[in-house]
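User: Now give one protein:

AI:
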Amino acid sequence: MTDSETWKDKYAQELFTYERLMARSIQTNSMQWQAPSLALAAQAFLLTIALRDQARPTATTTVCFVGVLMTLMAWQLMARHRYFFHLDQADMENLEDALDLLRISDRDRQMARLSRVQPPWLGRAWAYDVWKAGFFLIALVDVGIGLSAWWPAQWVIVGLVAALLAVWGWALLASAAHPLRIRFR
């Protein structure tokens, strides 16, 4: 028996576990990104119903409420799949350390190791955060359309801006008490 066969035989269970984790991690990452695309298609459908000229205010408000719920459900599903993905990544990192393998599961280390390779300017933003912000804006549009079915649009816009400023102020106050941590994962 050669040394490489001995090593493979000795760590066969760990290598099998690593391969399973890798496959599950790829599947989980794929499912994470199915949620926003399906929710976006559902939002488009709901917004076409809400923006019809013949729509009654109750129907418009109901459709927009369902749109906000869709946004929250997609956000939660993305977060859940992201959590599972990070659990698998942590187990893979532990196995890489135990087997003294190249740390391919840790993107931060990979980016540091390959610092000469730079992403395009838009690729520097973390997709999860971009989609969260996009879903937040879609939810605001849903709320705005739902409210404008009952009140004049200019008052709805003023109310939404005031709510955004209040949330922004609250976030600033909260970050002063508990400084925000920048995450790069």
